[in-house]
Design goal:
It is built from nine helices and 14 strands. The chain has 325 residues and is α/β, with parallel strands linked by helices. The longest helix is centred in the last third of the chain and has 22 residues.
Length: 325
Amino acid sequence: MDKRPTVFIGSSSEGSPVAEALKAQFGDKAVVDVWNNNAVFERGVSFFESLVNASSLYDFAILVFTGDDATTSRKRTHASARDNVLFEYGLFLGHAGKRRAYAFVQDKLHVPSDLAGIHFDHFKFGANKKLDAAFGETASRLVADMLDYHANTAEFSQLPSTALAIGYFENFISRICNQLDNYEPVTIKDRQLNYTSFTLNIVIADDLRLVEQDNLRSIIRGLEQVKVTASGFRDFPFYVQSVPAEGDTHLELFDIPTTMKSCRRAIQKIFASEYLGKNNLQKRAEQREISNFEHTLRLLIDDVPVWKPNIKYRYLSEFVRSTDT
């Protein structure tokens, strides 16, 4: 599963060389779409609809402001960015926030007064309209800041993966690990087990179709669902590969966070079904939600060092009998 951040880069046609140069700065560290590569704007769908949907698909957006238009304000005329580029910046800024939406501004370009006070990274054109030597350093710093922010921050958006991961952690992982970490006997299939070590395998769906109940029943192999009973908490259903043999002091449990079905439902509600049927954007949105769910969960678990060695992450596709589901 591709865990790299996704980046939208928008510009005017005249600014597309800058957009492509920015894309090159990411190398293979992010999945980057430039607006004129037809990755976002689809035939038969309005630009507005495409942009609104795109604002939910990407982790970051960079809008390139180049002096392609002229704006007259208080009897003074300034070079300014195209209206559509300013609109796209506002759309992504309002949706994703100031740490995920950036403007990359041509030096000395006039920007609307509403944006006064915001720090923008700037670039210059040298001879023959080529980017000057400072471009690489400025763009590299911007890319590094974005990648660092992505690695260390969970995102809240209109899609629910972050909230679901927090709920799963608070209501399930923390309760289970607190109890298991006491190493009190547990009962599985009417057998009381004493254990001195445990592993909790979190089996994450790397394709959200797999958490649909009909699919889930048919794709898990080598796992058996059981109830684990212990003093101090209610019975919880888990999967086991096998009940530990007599004398085995290691307890290994598997859990599948089927709460991720809510991500799939939210995506289906946000994007019109007829729109989804025409392109690959649903899959992209689902992959982003899966990645953010796992990323958020790892950040939460990493904050509890005593549990971290006892938790492993697996993917549901490892248990799939056939990919044709």
